[in-house]
Fold:
Amino acid sequence: MTAQVFSFALEARDGAARSGVIYTARGEIRTPAFMPVGTAATVKAMMPDSVRETGADILLGNTYHLMLRPGAERIARLGGLHKFMDWQRPILTDSGGFQVMSLSALRKISEDGVKFQSHIDGHAEFLSPERAMEIQRLLGSDIQMVFDECPALPATHAAIEKSMALSMRWAKRSKDAFGEQTDEERAGKACFGIVQGGTFADLRVRSAEALQEIGFDGYAVGGLAVGEPQSAMFETLDATVPHLSQDRPRYLMGVGKPSDIVGAVLRGIDMFDCVLPTRSGRNGQAFTSEGTLNLRNARFAEDAGPLDPACDCPACARSSRAYLHHVVKAGEIIAAMLLTWHNLKFYQDLMQELRQAIFESRVEALALRYKAGENPTSKGESCP
Amino acid sequence: MTAQVFSFALEARDGAARSGVIYTARGEIRTPAFMPVGTAATVKAMMPDSVRETGADILLGNTYHLMLRPGAERIARLGGLHKFMDWQRPILTDSGGFQVMSLSALRKISEDGVKFQSHIDGHAEFLSPERAMEIQRLLGSDIQMVFDECPALPATHAAIEKSMALSMRWAKRSKDAFGEQTDEERAGKACFGIVQGGTFADLRVRSAEALQEIGFDGYAVGGLAVGEPQSAMFETLDATVPHLSQDRPRYLMGVGKPSDIVGAVLRGIDMFDCVLPTRSGRNGQAFTSEGTLNLRNARFAEDAGPLDPACDCPACARSSRAYLHHVVKAGEIIAAMLLTWHNLKFYQDLMQELRQAIFESRVEALALRYKAGENPTSKGESCP
Structure:
């Protein structure tokens, strides 16, 4: 179940879609995989056992948030992130690159790295490829992401090209820093590169090739799901994925809605993370087999039926839509707890459905049920 | 386990303290019992299964809150409060008398009842003995409380006497209204009277005698824990309890801190409810075998030890004080979930300890560990 060497075994293909298993020091990850977001060392409103019960094999943690509070060195002194948050299975950490751009104030980017102010207390901070990898080592992350620059879209070809080139130099430095971790520290762990290049196909290809020259354990596609139309995201994947190694996991960062995930799986993506199921749950919204429901809506006030007749999570098995409407309206914490649980279960059930369909060579048919009627990708929903 | 006739069996005595079992249509209640407060059809931040896991036999629901949102008739149409909130064991409901006084605006009290405005939307509402009992019937409450007037303390003897006399007339009307429920509706259920009279011993005695003349399935002591010193509360119990029937359960409403509960058990009280464990949990405070801890305190930032070494709840078994400090500071929902769970477990463990000590004739010795250093009772903590 646990592996001293990080590896990826493809087990089935259906067109470009694929299903397999990632082996890590902390256990196996079935792909395509959805990673719930545990920003501040908690998947919001969920007990760790409950997250596992939904079917999650791996969580995502945020370097940016954890470095600011409670601090990476502190977490290391307390035995690492897994012990700290009571999640013994794999954890992937991002490098902080995205949040530095989206959350912090007074950023100053240089070749060396990024100086910025904490969004919590204005404290001066610094992130670089070396520091981002050091933080991820201190956290004990199983899959560590290179430090990259995430430019806002839309931007010119020249601006994106310059940013991508910087990200590639930072990727090399990140890989080198990962390589300097001890054998014991790296056992069963991985470092992933991140393809940048906006929605420009030529830049994406160059970025993918540059990363593969460096050589990573897996390849992520970053800088998408930042407000562009779903079609632009899919076109970018069409241009990028064929240039990524077949035998390494591919991770589309910060994605997405169910239809985004299905479309990306069809294009050969293996891993996803998104705050949408957890954040929507806290906002009274549920993903169901009957579509997205807003439980705040008065039409649910006397609806004695289950939230989703196709689901067996506690919200569906043990409460009614009327109860959920009541606790959402009353602002009760149980509303966030039940709807988050349900939404995470919905996402994990979708991943299981996709894996099964790939094994049975019917993923295209499954995908028709999720055809995109929800464009564009919603800015700000994709990352915490 | 479930009973068609509500009854109370005393099983052990130790001085004035006693332990027994209350039999109801929805199951047994071991006494002395602590009832977690489920104000708005949820014990805040807890799944119903988790509440049961802490050892709770019975919950308290609030007539005032539920009548305003989602409404008693609505809950009845949805199958009753037990089904609505997914708690199949006994529920005691208060009558709304306390909250009408503490929460609503523009109250107008007459012999008939109380006109008031909802604190949620200003809607005009009315509560009377008959309406309070009707609401409790609609909710399907197992133990229904008479409608009473809760005067603010301090007040003159004359004012409290007048208010108590009104409460006694309302108690008779409440009992009559309960008697008009069908045999099926009342099977295995109970109606409790509430002793009033402030801290005046003579009024408490008269109130206790008036209620016993009417005849109830149990007797509550109301109007305490509203800011008076603990000694005044205990003196009032000393004056009141000897005048309450030995063979009926006795319930001290809205109490309290651990030392309040222990002192009241020594004086012959069988049942308690209080928001303190749940509200404190949401505020970052924990009751532990080492005293009350404020997890917000910086001294816990790197404390790798368990919250309470004497406890086996999820907060204690699976997280550190450092983690709890972090999630409290970050305002994460998991902080409320873990600390509420722990505090409810602490209270239920205390009740179990008291029951055991009564059986073993050593409750006085146990009580020495909880001698009151925490006076006075905190106003506003005692009721939601």
